[in-house]
Structures are given as structure tokens and as C-alpha cells.
TrEMBL record:
This is Double-GTPase 2 domain-containing protein. It comes from the Bacteria. Pfam families: DO-GTPase2. Residues 110-316 form the Double-GTPase domain.
Amino acid sequence: MSLTSRVPIPGARARQGLTCPYCFAVVPLQDVRFRCRGRAGRRPGCEPVLDETLAEYLGSTAGASLPPVFSATGRRTRAACPGCGQETGNRVCPECHNPLPSAYCDSPGRIVALVGAKNAGKSTYIAVLLHELMNRVGTELDASLVACDDRTIDRYKRDFARPLLEERRLLPTTTSAATSAREPLVYLLTRTRTRRGRGPRLGGGRRTESLALVLFDTAGEDLRSRQVTDLHLRYLEAADAIIFLVDPLELPGARASVAAVPPGPGTGDDPDSEPINIIARVTDALRARHGTPPGRRLPVPVAVALTKIDALRPGLLRQSALHRTRGGEGALDLDDREAVDAQVRALLHEWHAGQLDVYLDQQYADYALFGVSALGGMPEDGRVGPGGVRPYRAEDPLLWLLYRFGMLDGVRPQPAGLDSGG
Ligand SMILES: Nc1nc2c(ncn2[C@@H]2O[C@H](COP(=O)(O)OP(=O)(O)OP(=O)(O)O)[C@@H](O)[C@H]2O)c(=O)[nH]1
Ligand SMILES: [Mg+2]
Ligand SMILES: [Zn+2]
Ligand SMILES: [Zn+2]
């Protein structure tokens, strides 16, 4: 099988400009604005002023006093501030005044959205995935994960890393966007690839590619109602790829496969919270937004991941692809990928949740199934289990998406002799 037979990615669809990863407005490049660097030490510059546009986005004036924003041609990477004459390379979105990192302006960023029902494990997954990308997986991929703004850094520490990873407390239920302002965590994942067999004279042999990882920790509650808020819709519409998280404990047929049903707030018999209904609601919204005619499948790549797979009976995992540890070579092992996909599909059918698979196949041209565990073990009394957080295959959906985006090679370790693609 050819390893280069990747289909074109819809994310590469010609956009009229770039999509702001904060407010999801589509901005023509020439309309991108600049923010003065401000005064620092002996360097002259403008004084901070209240940025009302940013304050409106934040829903608060805290953190919105910054050096002024000005217009200049956003196609350039730098511009001189009309107030103080100093050059700045800080570009911002004209709609919400959030920073647009140059790597994001210069290479078409890709937005990955994360969705799931209440209690599916979204917040826990975000905490762990980001940690993995900043550490083990980042090293393996030779990729750096950099937060695009200080608020992302602060919020990741305060709401995710500190409670879950340091204090080992389970994360609280995410509050509804109706009661508290919601803002995405915006990161840039940058990977430098050295193209094998290409000398530096042929374009340098090194290519830097970026992916905007925009994680919007939606409250499951907000996806329950049909009135998905406008920001949610814009988020989903802007997404070049979607990760759906599904709690297997919510699949009625899976109960028998679970080692112990965890205590805590299950969603019970509420049909609005069933995974397939959440996915259907999001799919309807996507269809409306993309104007996809009925009968045609949506082109957005979708990774559907069963969460909490540590909760499945050990017997079920033994001898299974899910149980195998992924070999980490900075490439996607396509044999392993197919084996996991087939196993999760078999589990869904065994659990009488085959309709989920059928539905995805009808609606999406490109979807893949995963099994992940963010915690790696059952939590106890509101805390992470005694072994600490030991994530398991948490990065798999993201690796697959990187592969789909052409940012990661696919390899088949067996049989030997195949070109490793790329
Ligand atoms: N066994 C196991 N349990 C998990 C795992 N991840 C999450 N959980 C459990 O699922 C609960 C909900 O996880 P959250 O990450 O808060 O879920 P959420 O999707 O953010 O929920 P809402 O914010 O209410 O929409 C946690 O409190 C844990 O009890 C996991 O990897 N393994
Ligand atoms: Mg949450
Ligand atoms: Zn200035
Ligand atoms: Zn914006």
C-alpha cells in the first residue's frame, strides 16, 4: 500500500484569510493589526491604555491595559507604531485584539476542536494531553508546544496542571459558558522536519510546520441543549479537525466490560447526553455551517476516542492492540493505527453501540477510532489513584491528525523494506 496516498485535507481549503484562534473570525491578512511593544526599561514606547475591544472579549478589564493597537499592512511582519515610532512585530486580530503569533500568520494554522458529553473526560484529557506534548511526546516528535498568550499559560497552570498533576485532585465539572466567560487555550505546535534524501541545496531540507491547537474546554452541559452557543458554533465551524471524546461507561452495553463502575455523577438515562446524540447535534451544526448537502459526507477529519479505557476489564485488553504500548519513533505506526481502529470498532459493536460507527461512517468521509486513558487508572475519593497520573495512548488522536495534516510520517515497521513515506 502506498504510504503517500493521503487525501487532501479540508483544512487546506482556500480560506479568504486566517481564522483567529480566539474569536474564530476569518481575517484577511492585510487587515491584521499590530500592537506597540510599549515602554520597557530604557527602551522608549507607548504607555498602556485600556484596550476596550480586548476587554469586551475577556468580559473584564483585568489584563486589558496594554500598549495601543494600530493599523498597518498586516501582510508585513513588522510595522512602526505611529505613536512612538518603534517597530513592532506583535500582530493582533482586528476583531478581538488577541495576539496572532507570526508562525500562525505565516503558515496556515490548523484548528483542532475537542468535544464530548458531560463527564466524558474532556478537562482531564486536555490537562494530560498538553502535559504530554510539552514533555515526552514533544521530545519524541521534536516538536515544541508554545502558549500563544499569557492567559493560556496562567489558566493551564491554575485550572488544569496544578490541581490534577501536582495536587492530584480530580478536576471540577466545567461550568457552563452561560455563567462564566469561556476562552480557548491557544497553543502553537511547531515541528521542524528534516526531509530525508534532500540536500540543503534543494530548499534547505528542513521545513517548519505549525499547528494551532485551540482547545476549548466546553462544558458537557452546553452541548446537551440544542441551543449551542454562537461561540461554540464558530469554534466548530473553524475547526480543521475534531476530536470527539466518548466515555465508554455511558454506552449501555459496555457496563459488563467494566472492571468497576466508578462512583460519581453519571449522566444516567438522559438521552440528550448519550454520546451518539451529542455527536449528532454537533454534526447537524457542522452540516448547516459548511452547507454540506444531505448524502454528502463531511470532509473534516474526526478522531473519536473512547476515554477511561483503564476502566475496562483487564481480560478485555489483554492480547489487544489497545494494550500494546505504542512504539515511539516520531512517526505514526500505520499497522498499529489500523489494529487499534479495528479493535475499538469491534468493542463498539460488541457493546451494541455499532450505530455510532455506522453513523460516523455515514456522516464523515474521514474518521478514526481510538482508545485513550488520561489518568491511567481508577480515581479514588475525588483524587487520582495511588500510582499518580499515568496516561496511556492519550496522544494517539493528535498523532493521527498530524499525519493527516502531512506533519508526521506514516511508517509500517513490518515488513521491512517499505519506504517510510513522508
Ligand atoms: N478511570 C478513569 N476515569 C477518568 C479518566 N478521565 C476522567 N475520568 C473520570 O471522569 C470524570 C470526569 O472527567 P472530566 O475531565 O471532568 O470530564 P469533562 O468532560 O470535563 O466533564 P464536564 O466538565 O462536566 O463536561 C473525572 O472526575 C474522573 O472521575 C481516565 O482516564 N480514567
Ligand atoms: Mg470539564
Ligand atoms: Zn507605540
Ligand atoms: Zn479574534
